[in-house]
Amino acid sequence: MKSYSYQTAGVCSKQINFSVDDAGKLHDVKFIGGCPGNLLAIGKLVEGKDAKEIADILRGNDCRGRGTSCADQLANAIDQIN
């Protein structure tokens, strides 16, 4: 399993830490900063799911007209490693 750390941009969360196993499944998604309840829920919802599928679902999600969101930033992080 490989671990990654992604510095976010344009959102309240400052960093996303996560792991991807050899089968391409997400694990241990943790957001540093941001809205704790919502971001904890995202981590639980994506646990064990296919990383590429999750990126496709979350990509483009907008928060308050910022053009991005913490979920979108997770998609960007996944895109960067693939």
Defining traits:
3 strands, 3-stranded antiparallel sheet, alpha+beta, 3 helices, globular, 82 residues
Task: Describe, in plain words, how this protein is organized in 3D.
- With 82 residues, this protein is an alpha+beta fold.
- Helix content is 38%, strand content 23%.
- The chain has three helices and three strands.
- Strands 1-2-3 form a three-stranded antiparallel β-sheet.
- Strand 1 and strand 2 (15-20) form a beta hairpin.
- Helix 2 packs across helix 3.
- The two termini are 14 Å apart.
Task: Show the helix and strand layout.
Elements: E1 2-7, E2 15-20, E3 26-32, H1 36-46, H2 51-58, H3 70-81
Antiparallel strand pairs: 1-2, 2-3
Helix pairs in contact: 2-3
Give the integer mean of the pLDDT values. 97
The rounded Rg comes to 11 Å
N-to-C CA distance: 14 Å
Could you estimate the helical fraction of the residues in percent? 25-40%
The major beta sheet can be summarized as: 3 strands, antiparallel
The secondary-structure element order is EEEHHH
**What is the beta-strand fraction?**
15-25%
Number of helices: 3
State the secondary-structure class: alpha+beta
Low-pLDDT parts are none
* Broad shape: globular
Strand order of the largest sheet: 1-2-3
Number of DSSP strands?
3
